[in-house]
Write a structure and sequence with these properties.
Three copies of one chain form a homotrimer.
Chain A lengths: L1 H9 L2 H11 L7 H14 L1 H20 L4 H5 L5 H13 L4 H25 L9 H13 L21 H33 L7 H14 L1 H21 L3 H5 L5 H13 L5 H25 L9 H14 L10
Helix pairs in contact in A: 2-3, 2-4, 2-6, 3-4, 3-10, 4-6, 4-7, 6-7, 6-8, 7-8, 9-10, 9-11, 10-11, 11-13, 11-14, 13-14, 13-15, 14-15
Pfam families (chains A, B, C): UT (PF03253)
Keywords (chains A, B, C): Cell membrane, Membrane, Transmembrane, Transmembrane helix
Membrane topology (chains A, B, C): Multi-pass membrane protein
């Protein structure tokens, strides 16, 4: 909205770039929105907030030092991957002193990977999005097994492919129906807000609401798509019979949130058609989330936002060949 | 052949597009050939035939709705991945009511992935081939572990990396020689025809013969390459000492069938040189098949036609840098 | 150096191409350097030397037969992947008669993959480097589980993700300090030279020194970067507390050796800036090495030189978007 962009421009440049970096996690090039996101992260937990701050500063400063495009840096494009790297490593790994060094190194690497993937995708005019964050964090998380500073690898909330799935399925289905009929309203309310919050690893209703407010300040359509994505990320896994704990934590929702924002608001021309396409993309993101989670479980890695990245890439590449959305590049 | 192309043009457009979609599984843009393939699938099993029909219709209709190129749709290029998705999911997953929904969703996604990969490979002028089918089916197959509608994941015919491989090898080698000298003729006849049939997941001699007839109607060189690929896919694994059950089911042969058709008939200028190159590609496809099968076995996924896709891509990319086959694009 | 280039030009063409192929393993287009590398390999072990010779000849002859660019062949670009394929398969697999066939087939495939990746990376002007060797050897190594000719799969020196890592870490840390204070000088001397030698799979101090001499003949900056990479590959894993046996064998060092040569000498304009960038790349290669090793351990595959390839690609792609190193292609 106009008033927020006026404030955005009034903020001193170094701060503005950092805030915009945080804002770009949800595609918002707006320092006010980014500031609200950072405040929300500190509300969710001091360590997460500090880690995000260290991350966004490290990755942005690295971009300056390596001489990448000033316009890109100014838009916060070299900040959002670092913003995510910090809280991610602190959620999944042990909180040791070495971890702060890892956050700085990983944020620096995320900037190199960002520039590299921007170069690779440049002829296609497709966004890199959060893929540098995902690839960098995966590498650091699986590397810690080799280093004495860490006594364990990443800890996942999900179980992956359960061995006893056959025996359980009948019992769990009937139990699930019982729970469903009792708690369905509460679960939805929790799951949908947490689904937005989990984009930055916060298991918190209030953080999710603050994120939605921040997005709404930049764009109402953006906030509507985020909310729709969270609803898809709760309804679809319920219909498919996915694990209820994961659904209630919002762990099926944060990827569709990003997919629907990207396809339905940011990267295609806003229309009823692109909204429907975003809905299809959101539904498929839920299945991709389940598939990738089971694929990565044996190696002990979480999906992070890669289901969103994969589905968004497929839909944006495909859209460029469509007579409705494509251009002739 | 000319008479079949006359019939092809006489068939009403919607039917022709569907039939050509089936035909493109073996690179045949010919409705007569496609119709024979569909009939062969129904001969192999009513469910497989129905699943292929639902798949080819879903993927083709999706391409219309998303506004992709009319010429591509008309050539059946948005049909063959759906044709394969249907029987694939029914072979490897449980036959539950949810599975029909999955076949429709996966066929729709295969169309999105097809358009996306066409865009990615466009600057290189390299075909997407069956990669959308493979990637989509892998994702759906590994996703079902998370959903109550399915009580198990995909079931593979192969064992992957056997733990007791050392102990077995001496015994199995001598046993194999005994079997070899007795049944070698029968085994070859079975393995070669089934090798062609397994491209569409049919474990049947008659289906393989019908497929070969269908290909021969479009091109004799195509049928010759398919037959050569099947022979390579039986002889080479026998020489390398691979598992005999897998060889007899044609599971080492369906990938070289497609590789030799692609390299020796469809995508390079037909010549003695490209026939020899196809032979080398076919042999390497057998090794790639073994490697990828062992790589995917721990996660419980079959290779599908990915060995063919990988080897074909390598040879076609490489051919574009050769003074014999390349052009200066 | 000038005298070595005069000799290089005086050597008959077929021999020169083969020697340059060996030289290109360390980015040296210089037959004298390549000859020293080959001699060093034979010093390390007759079989390794023979396997490298068979590999470099097979891959170079294949490039001639398939009609790839004469200039590329003459520079040894179709030789270095074959040079690596030979000793690699002999180190990790059983020494059976079939293995010589595998070395020839894998070297031929490495040439096809080389040409394919050259075509893919051509619009970006990024080198293929040793990725064809890595991809080809991975495929052949995991394939042997399916073939009777081999009674086992590849044998790794590393353990991957240790189950008992928690219990061990306290004990091993104190033990490590004890060892560290006693043997630190010897360990460094051994680890650094072996780190250079392990690029071609030689666990030998003398081979490492011969390699450094060979590189110095082509370029002193190249030799300096190689030595710096080896030091990074010893110091950084010691600081992070990695396994000491692996460090002493040079198994954390051979990848940073190549990364620092590529980033600090071959592919960016030599300057203090690019030397610092090479240092950062070298440090990140150590973490990438640990991550990829743990990722591949369950499937039984070694990282080979892929950590170097990945980090080099990221830094070179990124450099092309930097105002300090990039060009406007």
């Amino acid at each position: 909205m106009d008033w927020s962009l006026s404030i955005d421009k009034a903020i001193p440049k170094p701060l503005r770039v950092i805030f915009r970096g945080a804002g770009q996690v949800f595609f918002c090039c707006n320092a006010v929105t980014g500031l609200i996101f950072l405040i929300a992260l500190y509300v969710g937990g001091i360590t997460a907030g500090l880690a995000a701050t260290v991350g966004v500063i490290s990755s942005t400063v690295t971009a300056y030092l390596l001489g990448f495009s000033d316009d890109d840096i100014d838009a916060g494009l070299y900040g959002f991957n670092g913003t995510l790297v910090g809280p991610c490593l602190f959620l999944f790994l042990e909180n040791t002193p070495q971890l702060w060094l890892f956050v700085v190194l990983a944020s620096m690497l995320s900037t190199v990977v960002m520039a590299a993937l921007m170069r690779i995708l440049q002829p296609y005019n497709i966004p890199v999005s959060t893929s540098p964050f995902v690839l960098t964090c995966w590498m650091f998380m699986v590397a810690v097994y080799s280093f004495d500073g860490f006594s364990r690898g990443p800890v996942l909330p999900a179980q992956g492919i359960p061995v006893e799935i056959v025996a359980d399925s009948v019992a769990s289905t009937s139990a699930w129906f019982a729970t469903f009929t009792q708690d369905v309203t509460v679960a939805w309310y929790t799951a949908i807000t947490k689904g937005v919050a989990e984009v930055m690893f916060a298991d918190s209703i209030i953080v999710g609401i603050l994120f939605l407010v921040g997005i709404a300040i930049t764009s109402l359509r953006g906030a509507f798509m985020a909310l729709s994505g969270a609803i898809v990320g709760v309804v679809v896994p319920i219909l498919l019979g996915a694990d209820q704990t994961l659904i209630e934590m919002g762990l099926y929702a944060f990827n569709p949130v990003l997919t629907m924002m990207a396809v339905g608001w940011v990267f295609l021309k806003p229309s009823t058609g692109s909204a429907l396409l975003a809905l299809l993309a959101g539904i498929l993101t839920v299945i991709c989330q389940a598939g990738l989670a089971n694929f990565l479980a044996p190696i002990g890695l979480p999906t992070l936002t890669f289901p969103f990245v994969l589905v968004m890439w497929m839909f944006l590449f495909a859209a460029s060949r469509s007579r409705y959305w494509g251009n002739s590049n």
